[in-house]
histidine kinase (Persicirhabdus sediminis), 504 residues
Amino acid sequence: MGGVIQQKAASRRVLIVAVVLAGIVITVGFGLARRVDLVSTDQGEQWLEDEHRYLIAQIDLLEIQWEQALEEAADFELEASKRERGEAAREVLGLRQVSYFGKRGEAHELVEFPLQGPAPLEPSLLSGELVLTNEEVFSSHNPIWIDDAGRPLMYRKADAHGSAVVFILNKKIARGVVLGELKSLMRTVPRVVPAGGLLEFSGDSGKVWLSRGDADCKSRPADETLRHYSRFGEWPIRYWRPRKEVVSYEASVLGGMSLVALLILVGGYWADREQARALKLAAQRVSFVNSVSHEFRTPLTNILLTTELAQEDSREPKAERRLALILDEGRRLSRMVDNVLSYARAERGKLQLGQVREVKLAEFLESCLQQFEILFARKGITCELDVSGDERVEIEVDFLSQIVLNLLSNIEKYAGDGAVAKVEAVAGKTLRITVSDNGVGIPAELKFRIFDAFERGGDSVTSTSSGTGLGLAISRELARSMGGDLQLKNSTNGAVFLLEIPLF
Ligand code: ADP
């Protein structure tokens, strides 16, 4: 039922809500404080340096081999007869043009012919726009590379007689040759890359020619890039270290959130304790009122009985009126005592159905109304009774009368002077009793709360009407214990209560 029992549930709810909230705060805290870092698991550089050194060694080797081939070709070309010219040069891959500088008098004779690639270079050597100077061609007998920006890559060798041969290299072809050689050389040795890492060899165009390891690494930039520049271009090695996820939590965020969660828990615990204390106090009060009510009951019943007898004996109208007044007030007190006792019983879970009796419905309701005859008359309240359906009903009469008397008592207290009330009863499979009035009614927002124990309408608390706020709570509890219900119906004019009880 309402009141204390509901408060008990509410009390536990505060603690549960606090615990759930604290849990949410902690969970969110963990989420906010969580940091996932990718930490490299391979710190060793040595093997990578070894790889680089190996690559450099291979490129250097190729370069030396190339140079040797060029020098041999140059020696041959310097010695060669006109007919044999170009024969040795043609054997060396990547050569684009051979230029011969023979000595004839003061001027040098220049013979050029292409080997691979496009037509002879324009402007040609020693022509109007000089590509090579005399100095460069004849300065020394040692073979030299001529490799500067803006000019093609050249290899020159001069002899003791003042002749020289210049090889113009096609860098692209040369690089292609080097690349082919490198690929086959490097592929023969298995590259041992740490698991989860990636090693990549590429040319200066960025095109990868050898790749070993986990290709997924390429979603991030390389951790290491080692470069080697040779005559044939740039040869970078890129390395992605293997990474693993390391989860850490930011202490400040976690600490802050834990503090909030702790505060919520402490607050919840405090509220729970306070409510438990209030509940205990309320229970003590109820127990006290219950004991007092018990003590009231017997003398009150005796007073009411004696007054009724005295009223019957009385021949004096004035005394009769006074006795009627005592009877009304005594009954009011009796209803209050009944409600308190029922409430205390319900709280202890001891609200049990009494004896089911058969009553004539119309007679029963008339006798209820009779108890209010004088009270209603005093306030000018009229009440109509309309009974239909089965004449007799079998019901727990004490419970039913307590409910009906409570509803009628409320009309007397709250409907106001001159109110018009109505009690309509229909008995069939279910007993339906509608108790309505055209008074101030009950605001919609109180529709459900009004049935809570100790709940009194806002105005009625300040008004002079007496009450404990137990009448409706007890009435609904009694109706439910009979398998039925008591509800406040929506109404634009006054209060309308519907009591429904299934009949057997
Ligand atoms: P009490 O009468 O002791 O206050 P009840 O539980 O019987 O307790 O009623 C609760 C509240 O419902 C009352 O305080 C009153 O504000 C309101 N109420 C009950 N019946 C009526 C009615 N017929 N008209 C207007 N208000 C009512």
Summary: The CA atoms of residues 461 and 496 lie 20 Å apart. The chain has three domains: 3-36+251-279, 42-241, 353-504.
